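Internal ticket #5521
Category: modeling
Description: The requester needs a full-assembly model to guide mutagenesis choices. All entity lines are attached below as received. Residue total reported by intake: 1253.
Assigned to: D.W.
Attached entities:
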Amino acid sequence: MLQEKGYIGTPRNRVDGRAKVTGEAKYAAEFDAPDLAYGIVVSSAIAKGRIASIDADAALAVPGVLQVFTHENRPRTAWFDINFRDETAPPGSPFRPLYDDKVVYSGQPVALVVAESFEIAAYAASLVRIAYEPETHMTDLDIQRDEAYVPPRKRTGVKRPPSPRGDPDGAFEQAPVKVHGEYRVAIEHHNPMETHASTVVYEEDGTLTIHDKTQGSQNSQSYVSSVFGLSSDQVRVISPFVGGAFGSGLRPQYQLFLAVMAALELKRSVRVVLTRDQMFTFGYRPLTIQTISLGANPDGKLVSIMHDAIQTTSPWEDYQEVVVNWSNLLYHCDNVKLTYRLSQVDTYTPIDMRAPGAALGVTAIETAMDELAYAAGIDPVELRLRNYAEMDEADKKYFTSKELRACYQLGAERFGWARRNPEPRSMREGRELIGWGMASGVWEAIMQRVAARAALTPDDRLEVASATADIGTGTYTILTQIAAETLGLPMESVTTKIGDSSLPKSPVEGGSWTAASAGSAVQKACLSVREQLFKYARRMDDSPLANASIEQVTFAGGRIHMTNDPSAGVTLQQAMQAGGVDRVEAEEKSSMGLLKNMRYSGYSHSAIFAEVRVDEELGVVRVTRIVNAVAAGTILNPKTARSQILGGVVFGIGMALEEESMLDHNLGRFMNHNLAEYHVPVNADVYDIDVIFVSEHEERLNPLGVKGLGEIGVIGTAAAIGNAIYHATGKRIRDYPITIDKLLG
Amino acid sequence: MNRFSYLRATSIDEAMREAAADPTARFIAGGTNLIDLMKYNVERPTRLIDITRLPLNGIEETESGGLRLGALVTNDETAFDSRIQDRYPLLASAIQAGASPQLRNAATTGGNLLQRTRCYYFYDPETPCNKREPGTGCPAAFGRNRIHAILGTSDHCIATHPSDMAVAMAALQAIVHVRGPGGERAIPIADFHRLPGEHPEIDNTMLHGEIITSVELPPDGFSRNYTYLKLRDRLSYAFALVSVAAALRMENGTIAQARLALGGVAHKPWRDPAAEAMLQGQPATEDRFRAVADHILKDARGYQDNAFKIDLARRAIVTALSQAASGTPQSQIDKRIQ
Amino acid sequence: MNASRKGSSKLETVPVTLTVNGETKRLEVLPWTILLDLLRDHLKLSGTKKGCDHGQCGACTVLVDGRRLNSCMAFAVMKDGAQITTVEGLARNGDLHPLQQAFIDHDAFQCGYCTPGQICSGVGLIEEGRAHTRDEIREYMSGNICRCGAYTNIVDAIEQVIGADAEAGR
């Protein structure tokens, strides 16, 4: 039906590339407004207690300071929790900035200094004096783990662990081969390069145009409307470019509240930009203690899987993610017990971070599986093949498609896995021990209901629009490709508009669902435009298409022609004229694939192979080679898709070796709250990364066959590196990141 | 950020005079540390004296056959100066191991010596810190101290000096030339930085109003047998957990002279002359190196997170001495340990 | 003098003259105005990014008198008289700088936020002429963090431009 030789599936440069390399792309803190005022947030020093007094006199006396907002003088906002609950909020009572004198976590915003310029605000903020009455806080999960509980209310969109099956304890007890261990991944902060920022433009009519760093313009828009009691046409959120987020932009962050509050109160435009340090004062990837017991027969076949996770959450919300379910999704087993609990610590509520849950759970199970491979004396790839899950055993559903076997095979071939000597410490070059390790990855292919509009105008310009976002994922580009291909127009004729709350409805961008969901919506809208155009074309006097059906025609080069006779056709313009219209427009919604949900489970998969070189004496680790073979259905744009996986792998290198937000439990405060001491990979850390997209036919999830790529690249990467380090050194580190001290210890 | 008045000094005398007149005035050059700390409200000078236009920016030969680095010579200029690379490759290597190309383009010789600790608590005015606010306590000793000192600490402070350049200069026995209201002084680098003791708020032995004019490198640059070995939490652009500058003079397979300085382990670049003497006249053997490392670390004290540094430093010393003895210095480009 | 007394007094500005992308700019700023904020807020040249504001990420990299610097770590007044090139000044008459084009061709960015700093840093690196191998490019580009993880593509882009320059005998 579609053009044979089109754009979908071909490598294309980013359509927003020029804007990004020239500096023209504008991010949240870069939109200007007349009389723009600048707000700087003052953060709390203590983790728990109350504010005894705030002395803002000196700050207020600085010429050019407009106001110092605190809990004492903040304007009234909505009262009920529901008003503060955004579309991704976990169960509980959302945090309210400047609500009262209570301090509930370290770094909490306690004042906003607003001034005529950034420089004045920065100076004035340094003069604000706050006295506290501290109370005892608790941030240590090792103490709080005894208080762990099963969250009474489930978080929307997050599956609970399935009920236990079989006799996992008994089977483990009797298993001839056993692995048992506790696994940890340190707390991580998202740290997108752009810090969170909101520029609130106070329009002449009192309405607000907000440039917010968000993964969901409509999520921010509805939050602002409901918190401040504004009607939806009084608030518009526009965020065409987002400087990374990785989940941090899923919820409206406190700078949005503060900037809007100040703008409404001062009746002028206000910008609030968080500092890098303040990027450590809201959500994070929670500390997770996982316990895994695997029992197997001598042939490696699993007879028992037990996987337990305890995660931190805040005292006010039950954040949840899917940590343990992946173990049984990857591996067949009849006796399975998967458990998940929360424990409250006095920090902000965690927030989804790239591959939430899976990045943790799969790291643990894939490390444990490597241990099992050694315990049973079976090659790690072979062990996984012997335990390959042919179906989603928890939900008793078949997979829509699953080419994980091909991932193992093609990844292993490309990597040269067959040459691996399984013996730890068997490869060495000079001072360095060399290790090869592997792991699997799995992530759910999620569809969301997204609306999109397509509109064709007489100049052969096609505009497609949806309120979804591009946080670097390539959404602009793939939507342009889909639209251009569907209507047979060059990509240059297509304008894609996203990141604007006034556009057709879309949930937040995240969960790897955007390409599939927004892409399907755009395709559907363009197909509607196609049908209308075709209808008009047939109606033309002497139409060469008069007797054709839409299946018999091709849209190409701005024309509709008979597929078997390209000379028989009409231009799109002629069709529009025939229809007497100067605009053909359609709005459609992606379908949720209900049939799929009843009968099938959809997941993307991957196999990651890693080579590390470890200086044995000094514990210096270099990740010299990664091969990541990914099966994720249709790859819309191999170029941007590859980048998604590269980025995921680099995230995984960070998790494996570097990233750790260090809490001082005495102070209840993250101490390495900057990019000098919170280490993310730099260029020198990243050697060769080879991405393979395994061919996977997918037709059940959506018409495009897309599963999504935002998360899968990170999942399993840390485990593959950890397993390679074991192979190199014989040291099994179950506590990520694997830093020098752990390797020497 | 606090407010300050700004003066662009046109002569060294003017700079000194202005500084002497205001106890809260500070000189500023590259700014890569002072501005950083001012943005955190850790440093709050009320007057800044910009010394970047002063004539302190050349690299010159000294009468004794060494080189004199002007205080304003940038780290990049030093590291890639052909005379430095030929005669003091240890210094060039150490500077290249630090920071980033952008920062090295701004950071100066004098400023690098004066940079302050990276201790998390020092950097965070919402926490106590004896170095920042004397008498408030040292939460690092009982808190997060992965990056902290293991040698020469006191009950009041366990911070480290973060410089790489200064570690190499310590091994090279550089001399810091300063000018002040009391005239000129030449301070051996070993006496320039100090240990925290009861006054961790004082980093070095300079007096208020004094200005670094140059750093003199003595003639012997140990350009054959040297290394700068830096270990950190990622492969570039990170402060040292432990670093070792090793400089040897080898004669017929034995060590005629040895210099060794450690970074990332103390409040100042750490030298141990007794340990260096243990190498003199000895063959370059791992056993000997181990004995030297043990001697240097015999009084080392680890805290909750950083005890590993004792073992890491021991290993790093042995590796660095081996690299220096064999004439295979650590590359700052190729991340394999040589 | 204590802070509150100073707080009530008038804030004195200082003059600063900069040549930014070839244009002379004369401004009156508070002494603690940072070069980065001057570019972004005062001159509305928001191509230069604020990532950490502490010299820890490289997003703010610009060329000052031809050398790459972190513009977040410089008081504007101290750069009085300097020639500054930002990402907005790299293209000539609408033609992208070869490194800008190479970044597009190699997909050397995702979110685009670190990109202007990466490109200015890369231009500085090429100018320095010290990087010839991938290892050298990696090390000399390590002052620019890319959280999206485009590093291998960034190295590809820079390597291509260095290679083209070498071929052209530049």
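Resolution: model delivered.
Comment from assignee: The first strand of chain A starts at residue 37 and ends at 43.
Ticket closed.
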